[in-house]
């Protein structure tokens, strides 16, 4: 059995371009689907996949670990950069999809079988616009409350929002009070039984991240995400140690050694590895094993497309430390035209039962994908009040 072709299919989906990866074999009808979506880097990722193809064409797709090692270690440059690791991830996911199809089982059955009966989903409310925080603070907080209530009415028992405004390295009480008002409105709207998460998007400095973390601690968040840059390991560890709220991070880390360093300083309680950026299932399973040693939970980053979601769920059904799956369900109205999924969602409580189809259980309609060709994503820019560049 040999790989005969690796193709990328780009599908523009409002905020991002989904990059689907198709691995074709010489066995009639046997193909694998992966995803390598990376916002604002679509051409870089598709180019990186083209650069990897000469290593893989003619190889046996069943030798997944062997092929992963080739993609990571050869061509001289290791795969730790996000563009290369995302390209590797897309191909790796497709190879595992093929493996499941060869054996006639879902991917989670390849890794020891399912460890749970369902996976809980959470949604994202959005937010984080600087002008809205300060121009109409009362209305903005009220809007968070209304969005939170709507999410619960839609069946979600957990949701996340960007209820922390962008801040300069040091600011006074104004942004902290704005964040408190938004989270208070959400908590008041949904009560104590619903889990609320807040994402800082790694915008704050360590000092401001600490202030936000302490200010929001009384609201008993499910987790507080990326309170400062992921490069600031000691600062993440300090914030994690200073509050009872579990700190979550990891979506911008792309390889095992980076997670090793994060876990060694206890920089988080929840690991948000992204299966489409950290080298796919092959590397993610190593990261998950390391997290388990440290008793750190898994809640993968997953705002991408439908193959990414299928992969995250397969991973969740195989990993004891997995706690919840990020869900994007209203990004484009034609999502279901592009993909058929093997898992089913209970709309009343937004939980997912296991996929029963082989591999990832997804089928991509290539004709529908072609109706939504590549478009350049809208540039996202953040500036502080004095004109200095901030983090988006």
Please tag this protein with its features:
392 residues; alpha/beta; Enolase-like, domain 1; TIM Barrel; 2 domains; ten-stranded mixed sheet; three-stranded antiparallel sheet; 14 helices; 40% helix; globular
Structure description:
This protein is α/β, with parallel strands linked by helices. It folds into two domains: 3-109, Enolase-like, domain 1 (2-Layer Sandwich), CATH 3.30.390.10; 112-359, TIM Barrel (Alpha-Beta Barrel). It is built from 14 helices and 15 strands. It has helices at 42-56, 64-73, 82-103, 107-110, 130-135, 137-153, 173-190, 206-216, 233-242, 256-264, 280-293, 306-316, 335-338, 366-370, and strands spanning 3-13, 16-25, 31-35, 119-127, 158-162, 195-199, 223-225, 247-249, 270-271, 297-298, 325-326, 339-340, 344-346, 351-353, 363-364. The strands form three sheets. Strands 4, 5, 6, 7, 8, 9, 10, 11, 13 and 14 form a ten-stranded mixed sheet that branches. Helix 1 (42-56) packs across helix 3 and helix 8 (206-216) packs parallel to helix 9 (233-242). The radius of gyration is 21 Å and the shape is globular. The relative contact order is 0.15.
In brief:
Helix content is 40%, strand content 17%.
């Amino acid at each position: 059995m040999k790989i005969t072709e690796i193709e990328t299919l780009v599908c523009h989906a409002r905020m991002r371009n989904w990059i689907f990866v198709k691995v074709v074999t010489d066995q009639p009808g046997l193909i694998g689907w992966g995803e390598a979506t990376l916002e604002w880097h679509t051409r870089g990722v598709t180019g990186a996949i083209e650069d990897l193809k000469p290593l893989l064409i003619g190889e046996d797709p069943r030798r997944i670990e062997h092929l992963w090692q080739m993609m990571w270690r050869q061509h001289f440059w290791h795969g730790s950069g996000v563009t290369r690791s995302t390209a590797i991830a897309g191909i790796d996911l497709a190879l595992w999809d093929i493996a499941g199809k060869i054996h006639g089982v879902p991917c989670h059955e390849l890794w020891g079988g399912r460890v749970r009966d369902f996976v809980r989903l959470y949604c994202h409310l959005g937010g984080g616009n600087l002008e809205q925080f300060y121009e109409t603070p009362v209305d903005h907080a009220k809007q968070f409350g209304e969005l939170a209530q709507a999410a619960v009415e839609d069946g979600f028992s957990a949701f996340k929002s960007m209820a922390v405004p962008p801040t300069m390295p040091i600011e006074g009480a104004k942004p902290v009070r704005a964040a408190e008002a938004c989270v208070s409105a959400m908590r008041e709207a949904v009560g104590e039984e619903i889990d609320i998460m807040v994402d800082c998007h790694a915008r704050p400095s360590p000092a401001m991240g600490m202030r936000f973390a302490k200010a929001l601690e009384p609201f008993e968040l499910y987790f507080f995400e990326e309170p400062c840059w992921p490069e600031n390991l000691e600062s993440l560890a300090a914030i994690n140690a200073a509050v009872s709220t579990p700190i979550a991070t990891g979506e911008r880390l792309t390889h095992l050694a980076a997670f090793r360093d994060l876990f060694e300083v206890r920089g988080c309680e929840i690991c948000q590895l992204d299966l489409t950026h950290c080298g796919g299932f092959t590397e993610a399973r190593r990261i998950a094993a390391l997290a388990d040693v440290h008793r750190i939970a898994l809640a993968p980053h997953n705002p991408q497309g439908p193959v990414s979601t299928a992969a995250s769920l397969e991973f969740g059904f195989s990993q004891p430390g997995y706690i919840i799956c990020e869900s994007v369900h209203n990004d484009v109205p034609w999502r279901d035209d592009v993909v058929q999924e093997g898992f089913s969602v209970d709309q009343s409580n937004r939980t997912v039962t296991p996929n029963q189809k082989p591999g990832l259980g997804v089928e991509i309609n290539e004709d529908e994908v072609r109706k939504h060709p590549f478009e350049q994503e809208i540039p996202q820019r953040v500036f502080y009040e004095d004109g200095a560049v901030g983090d988006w």
